Amino acid sequence: MSGHKLSGLRWALMAAFLLSTAAIVAAQKRGVITGSVTPPSAGVMVVVTNLEIGYAAIGGGFLTGWGVVLGARGKKGRPLQWMAVACAVFGLLVGKYFTGAHFVTVSKGWEGTSIFDTQLVEVFFKVFPDTLSPWDGLWAFIALRVAWRIPKPTTVHVS
User: Fold this and answer.
1) Please, are residues 28 and 83 in contact by the beta-carbon 8 Å criterion?
2) Which residues, in sequence order, are CB contacts of 69 under 8 Å at separation 6+?
3) What residue ranges do the domains of the chain occupy?
4) CA Rg, the chain, in Å?
């Protein structure tokens, strides 16, 4: 039985080496790009509709997962799953920031403030926990689950 576990470990190590460094770097770039591009589009939806639309987060997780897979040239694996989740978390935080930054910059006393102003960033991190709701947790969980599943390797069970 221990020999079987060892061969499974060897197989996992071989699979990890098959993901070349170049593919991982390319996947990371694509994941960060899609994780950075989807939140502003979700932010535009918030500005236009004046509503936070939770299922946009799922679209962000979906696009981030596929961005990582396409960046890795179609490869899949556990390291890419973690990368997709990390990029999706980054995207969700950026989206939440843009949403909060919009509402703060249109409020009295903040007109004309850049969304990249250091004071605004400080305010965001102070009030961020207060802006979260159970619905945010639900949508984030689903989005991260989607981002996790897309780069999951396909397994074939032979009996």
Assistant:
1) yes
2) 27, 75, 76, 80, 84, 150, 151
3) 20-149
4) 19
**Single-letter amino acid code for the residue at 116:** F
How confident is the model over 131-156, as pLDDT tens digits? 888 998 999 999 999 999 999 988 87
Answer whether 67's CB lies under 8 Å from 22's CB.
no
Q: Which residues contact 58 (CB under 8 A, 6 or more apart)?
A: 139, 142, 143, 146
Residue with the larger pLDDT of the pair 135 and 5: 135
pLDDT of residue 13: 58
User: CA-to-CA distance for 21 and 38, rounded, in angstroms?
Assistant: 26
Listing DSSP states for 47-98 in one string gives HHHSS--THHHHHHHHHHHHHHHHHTTT---HHHHHHHHHHHHHHHHHHHHH
- Alpha carbon distance, N-terminus to C-terminus of the chain: 18
